[in-house]
Design goal:
Layout (H helix, E strand, L loop, with lengths): L9 H15 L1 H18 L5 E5 L4 E5 L4 H18 L2 H4 L9 H37 L12 H31 L3 H18 L6 H10 L4 H24 L6
Helix pairs in contact: 1-5, 2-3, 2-5, 3-5, 3-6, 5-6, 5-9, 6-9
């Protein structure tokens, strides 16, 4: 009698898990479309403006931007990554001959793919705001500056990096919650306490703003990408380290 032993490589398992996740986690992309529609509806109403006039004429100006849509996208990325870490999703990986390393790698690839899809669809949705506003507004003059190819490319890439960063943070938060339910209380309490600390310091040290400026005020796209990738790598590494210390099927 002859016996054959088949050695399954890590990357083969990761590819199978990734294909499974793309097919199974369709709700992630459905929620993405719903949030983009909601963001589009809120954005076409305008985000401010001013008016004025005299005896002979009057005018009103309305500003349009994709800030609301961008905020909803960040929220989608953060929450989607948390959902991936829940038990219901993690137990799906036990249908494969896999370990936690292959599961984490597949999750990171899925998050990367989701971020790319989110960034591209955000570009299309943000441009749709301009088109919709042209049809619904009765305007005599419309001031707009068409973006260049370089601006579209860099803007889309920056959006993808932001989505990936928020997803990495959400993945870490989800892992912490799975590690201990106390983090459901500790994390919000810590964030609220940080906000109160900033108020008491009277703006002397605004940690929340400083963290945002660490990424948002970066003028070099290369340095911005390095910052995002380093912080994201640390978040994923911490998630993997904590999950390895958890009991099997916890």
């Amino acid at each position: 009698m002859m016996m054959f032993l088949t050695k399954v490589s890590l990357w083969d398992v990761v590819k199978k898990q990734l294909r499974f996740k793309v097919k199974s986690y369709r709700g992630t992309f459905t929620s993405l479309m719903v949030l983009q529609i909601i963001g589009l509806l809120f954005s076409v109403g305008g985000e401010g403006g001013f008016s004025g006039g005299s005896d002979n004429f009057s005018y009103a100006m309305t500003d349009y931007s994709s800030n609301i849509l961008f905020a909803l996208m960040m929220m989608w990325s953060f929450i989607s990554a948390i959902v991936i870490t829940t038990k219901a999703y993690r137990f799906d990986d036990y249908t494969f001959v896999a370990n936690r390393m292959s599961s984490h790698i597949a999750n990171i690839f899925f998050i990367c793919l989701s971020s790319i899809i989110g960034g591209i669809t955000f570009l299309l949705a943000s441009q749709s705001i301009k088109l919709v506003s042209l049809f619904i507004q009765d305007s005599e003059i419309i001031l707009t500056q068409p973006p260049t190819i370089l601006q579209l490319t860099s803007g889309t890439a920056a959006t993808i990096f932001y989505l990936f960063l928020f997803a990495a943070i959400g993945y870490l938060v989800g892992t912490l919650v799975q590690k201990s339910r106390l983090f459901v209380i500790i994390l919000p309490a810590g964030f609220i306490g940080l906000l109160f600390l900033n108020v008491f310091l009277a703006g002397e040290s605004d940690v929340v703003v400083d963290v945002g400026q660490f990424f948002g005020r970066e003028t070099s796209f290369l340095l911005f990408a390095v910052k995002v990738l380093v912080v994201s790598a640390l978040a994923f590494a911490a998630s993997l380290w904590m999950s390895n210390r958890m009991e099997v099927r916890q």
